Amino acid sequence: MIKHTSHIRVRYAETDQMHMAYYARYLDYFEVARTEMLRAKGMPYRSFEEEGYLLPVLEAHVNYLQSARYDDELRIETTLDFSGGAVLRIEYNITREGQSIATGYTRHAFIRASSGKPCRPPKRFLEAIGQH
Amino acid sequence: MIKHTSHIRVRYAETDQMHMAYYARYLDYFEVARTEMLRAKGMPYRSFEEEGYLLPVLEAHVNYLQSARYDDELRIETTLDFSGGAVLRIEYNITREGQSIATGYTRHAFIRASSGKPCRPPKRFLEAIGQH
Amino acid sequence: MIKHTSHIRVRYAETDQMHMAYYARYLDYFEVARTEMLRAKGMPYRSFEEEGYLLPVLEAHVNYLQSARYDDELRIETTLDFSGGAVLRIEYNITREGQSIATGYTRHAFIRASSGKPCRPPKRFLEAIGQH
Amino acid sequence: MIKHTSHIRVRYAETDQMHMAYYARYLDYFEVARTEMLRAKGMPYRSFEEEGYLLPVLEAHVNYLQSARYDDELRIETTLDFSGGAVLRIEYNITREGQSIATGYTRHAFIRASSGKPCRPPKRFLEAIGQH
């Protein structure tokens, strides 16, 4: 299990006429958070694709608790959980000044780009999460 | 319970470098589908906001089964379920040529824009779903 | 020179807190309009990429005249102009009930995907625009 | 005339199947850059809206010179030019490791939210750009 904390600022482009971040944008925020987590752990997602792996999303879930507003600075706590196989689960907790804004998770599969088939994670990933 | 079927075509803007519709875009598709369902049932969402109601999303969920590709024509079956109170649940089934691409749901609350408080749905909504 | 007319409805996802379609979304609308024009003329953009051509954008311009609002039905008149070489220019005029909302243009180059180099348009394109 | 430099990292959400940042996303980047410039100069855009001003875009232009790729770190140099009246012009130069990726500009009008009419900029803005 690995953890990481990211920060993001709500862009005007991400607001809607309800004066809050549009609900689909939270999935963009989740992506930024997991990208930064992977980079911080020495395995940028870009390098996975360069090595022939893809990590498509199998499932995504968001609970919306409070509105995120334009220009808000959000904190995202990300937790990656891997228990073997090809699938990993990432949990997200978005807060603003200590108050919970949204929680959620995504599930991803390691896929070999050449075959489109699920596969074991690259060795580098297993080392980074301490399961080599 | 009411049902509706919508059609959507995947835009280039919605693809990512994995050559499929980016995972957050499915929530945009869900929104288009529920907007069209409400309009088809004689209660366009726009009119709710004009009458002082908002319908923010409480929860969203997507299961990704197959990739949607650029220019694909997708069919979205939408089912709205309301069992009283302020909350409604909408289910979505996205298919392409009979094959399931994604399923999911959203939960929404009727909110009075002036107070930000949950409220009973407008009478027009209750009539449309046969619960007046 | 070829012409085409498309229709588009403003999605909630495309609004911002100024209660209008966000300014970058007009470039998405332009893309939908030119995609539909190419399909209507028997040369879907998808088939260009399948045949090894890309059509990246060199330049984009938008003049914003009136706000487009949520759920508005917009009409987009698209005009493609090609005067030889690798570059084509497409002009757009977005209207709502006869009133001009925005105008603009994009310039694109035909590129061979394998080399990344500009190239002559495919024969099918030249035939469609009457320049074979 | 005021200047500012911002940094941005290309998100996966912003790529398209041509393996580059989608052309409309550059307008999102421009917005992030001008937002950060205004904040750095002590006049966050958020505060303009809170004081009853809007700054809608009149015109936008982008020249695409090189592709921006997923995870690229981009530098955006922003220059604001104001020569009186209600209109201001902002120029953008996006680079990656010293190489120019895109240039462009936007033109905006100060509008009073209550009337929708163009107006003189707030005093705070004139002070910040040294024209009080």
What does this structure look like?
Four copies of one chain form a homotetramer. The first copy, chain A, is α+β, with helices and mostly antiparallel strands. Chain A contains three helices and eight strands; from the N terminus they run βααβββββββα. Chain A has helices at residues 25-40, 45-50, 123-128; strands at residues 2-9, 53-54, 57-64, 73-82, 87-96, 99-109, 111-112, 117-118. In chain A, the strands form two sheets. A five-stranded antiparallel sheet of chain A has the order 1-4-5-6-3, with helices on one face. In chain A, strands 2-7-8 form a three-stranded antiparallel sheet. In chain A, a hairpin with a 2-residue loop joins β5 (87-96) and β6. Chains A and B meet through α1 and β3 of A and α1 and β3 of B. β3 (57-64) of chain A pairs antiparallel with β3 (57-64) of chain B.
Task: Looking at this protein, list some descriptive labels.
three-stranded antiparallel β-sheet; elongated; 21% helix; 3 helices; homotetramer; five-stranded antiparallel β-sheet; 132 residues; alpha+beta
